[in-house]
Write a structure and sequence with these properties.
Elements: E1 22-26, H1 42-47, H2 49-55, E2 59-62, E3 66-67, E4 79-83, H3 90-102, E5 106-112, H4 121-128, E6 141-142, E7 165-169, E8 175-180, H5 195-210, E9 215-219, H6 243-246, H7 257-269, E10 276-279, H8 286-291, E11 300-303, H9 313-325, E12 333-337, H10 346-350, H11 360-376, E13 380-384, H12 405-410, H13 453-457, H14 463-477, E14 486-487, E15 494-499, E16 502-507, E17 513-514, E18 519-524, E19 532-533, E20 538-543
Parallel strand pairs: 1-2, 1-13, 2-5, 5-9, 9-10, 10-11, 11-12, 12-13
Antiparallel strand pairs: 3-4, 6-8, 7-8, 14-15, 15-16, 16-20, 17-19, 18-20
Helix pairs in contact: 5-7, 11-14
Length: 549
């Protein structure tokens, strides 16, 4: 493996040090297996920390590693203060945190705040208790409507499809109350109107902060904002609830959510240096997103709408503009995301043609160009594992191997997220392409050996080495306060903006663009490192004179 040396980042002394940072999202189950059972784990991740460091990222966000029945990839938590044996032990977590810190990497852990597992002791005790009991008040148990209570308390629908309510049998065997779950029925929603829940999560946050974790990624934060009066929302029971288009509603981004977030920030700020809080905020409007960045709330929020966009200059420019127009003056910032464990892989999404087919080569070119844009935007950036390799979505997983609860609840395999969670290819050959000593449950496509880490290390022009060049150059050239971006009008099929002397251009058109006078090419996503910017390519240009772009 080629050696890449990066200076150790300056120790964090204030939250603004995170502002331009790049985060690497590590989805444990499919990153690296260190114990030989075919499942990614902490020992495997620890063995690959030098690789993560070599990318030039600043922090690592680890997907939920807690004790879980794995009904939703670990986002159904049965114990928030212990590690699932599938991934290792608390000792392994300590070793991982220490290993990151010794390499100058900060650690962000994923905390699921809206719900827990139906196997969590809190929920088991609630089922064993009577209606109105303190145990049930930790969740949202309600009597049903209709003469016999056999209709759900409201018309609310789940993000995963189907109704957001499930009816239980009481201890005497008769049908009883309903409980709320905005996701899967194995993920009952926690009642954040109850101080017991507020205090319990303060203890959970402290547990991880005190173990050396530098920050928290807070999952589905708007979901805890529910009106206390439980009004109908006029939902269509045949569709999935889509918060990025359908919110706010009485059960999403409403109520007292911002008071809760302010309490989290007070806790994070009680540490020296302050702990970092980044939120997953899926809402329909950018101004609603920006409210979570007001003084005394989150350090940052993920700008996730870029991860759903097609190959369109207008779409990307519009989304970025709307975010920047709502950028806070409080010192908080957006973290840009173009891919995640919940979205179709960028290469596949951007390589989709008008007819619906995917051109892998075109998708790869476009993904490299979008990486340049991502790297030049003001604020933070997040890379999902495998983005640096240009991995595509796996779309032919056999139905019987699909684990995503969305598939079961909607009956539609195409809506599942399993295809972006396939094990990483580390080697060009072998039963699991270096991921494990045994075959993983879902095998990687055979051709992934050609885009494995091993294969790409050997090619200077590979996606992997291009990613390293972008992140290295970002440290050297991308400067300025959060709002410092000036759009240039190069036509409707080109995204062009300056940040100081840096000019970023992404060519969405079918015509080759010449490099303007007075600029030199710093980086190009295409094979041509000259003065032209080909279709589906991007470039960083540096002003060498007062020439106009």
């Amino acid at each position: 493996m080629a050696s890449h040396h990066h200076p150790r980042p300056t120790p964090v002394t204030r939250l603004s040090d995170w502002r331009q940072g790049v985060t690497y999202q590590l989805y444990l189950r499919s990153f690296a297996d260190g114990t030989g059972d075919g499942v990614g784990d902490l020992p495997g991740a620890l063995q690959r920390l030098d690789y993560i460091q070599s990318l030039g990222v600043d922090s690592v966000w680890v997907s939920p590693w807690y004790v879980s029945p794995m009904a939703d990839g670990g986002y159904d938590v049965a114990d928030f203060c212990n590690i699932d044996p599938l991934f290792g032990t608390l000792k392994d977590a300590d070793l991982f945190i220490d290993g990151c810190h010794r390499r100058g990497l900060r650690v962000i852990v994923d905390v699921v705040v809206n719900h827990c597992s139906s196997e969590h002791p809190w929920f088991r005790r609630a089922l064993e208790s009577h209606p109105g009991s303190p145990e049930r008040e930790m969740f949202y148990f309600r009597d049903g409507r209709g003469a016999s209570g056999d209709e759900p308390p409201t018309d609310w629908i789940s993000v995963f499809g189907g109704p957001a309510w499930t009816r239980i049998r009481e201890r005497d065997g008769r049908w009883g109350q309903w409980y709320l779950h905005l996701f899967d029925s194995a993920q009952p929603d926690l009642n954040w109107h109850n101080p017991v829940i507020v205090n319990a999560f303060e203890d959970i946050f402290r547990f991880w902060f005190d173990r050396g974790v530098d920050g928290l990624r807070l999952d589905a934060v708007p979901a805890i904002g529910k009106d206390a009066d439980f009004r109908d929302a006029g939902c269509d029971p045949t569709v999935q609830f889509a918060p990025e288009t359908d919110s706010p509603t009485p059960y999403w981004d409403s109520g007292h959510v911002h008071d809760i977030v302010a309490g989290w920030r007070q806790l994070a700020d009680s540490y020296s240096p302050p702990k970092y809080l980044v939120g997953e905020i899926n809402v329909a409007h950018t101004d609603s997103l920006a409210r979570y960045l007001r003084p005394g709330e989150l350090s940052s929020v993920f700008a996730m709408s870029l991860a759903k966009l097609p190959w369109s200059a207008m779409a990307f420019r519009s989304k970025v503009s709307h975010h920047l127009e709502n950028a806070p003056s409080s010192g908080s910032w957006f973290t840009w995301v173009t891919s995640s464990h919940d979205e179709v892989r960028t290469v596949t999404r951007l390589g989709r043609t008008a007819g619906g087919d995917v051109n892998f080569e075109v998708g790869t070119e476009r993904s490299r160009a979008i990486l340049l844009m991502l790297g030049a935007l003001p604020g933070g950036a997040c890379l999902y594992q495998g983005d640096e390799l240009g991995l595509p979505q796996v779309t032919d997983i056999p139905r019987e191997l699909l684990e995503d609860p969305i598939v079961a609840r909607t009956g539609d395999p195409s809506k599942g997220r399993d295809g972006c969670r396939v094990a990483l290819p580390w080697s060009e050959s072998g039963v699991s392409l270096g991921f494990s000593s045994v075959a993983p449950r879902v095998r990687q496509p055979r051709q992934w050996g050609e885009i494995s880490v091993e294969a790409q290390e050997a090619r200077p022009d590979s996606f992997l080495n291009f990613t390293r060049r972008v992140l290295d150059a970002r440290r050297d050239y991308v400067e300025g306060p959060f709002q410092s971006l000036t759009w240039l009008d190069w036509g409707e099929d080109v995204v062009a903006f300056t940040r100081g002397r840096l000019l970023c251009v992404v060519n969405f058109s079918e015509e080759t663009l010449p490099c303007p006078d007075g600029y030199q090419v710093l980086l190009s996503s295409g094979s041509n490192e000259g003065h032209d910017i080909a279709p589906n390519c991007g470039a960083w240009l540096w002003a060498t004179s007062d020439g106009e772009a």
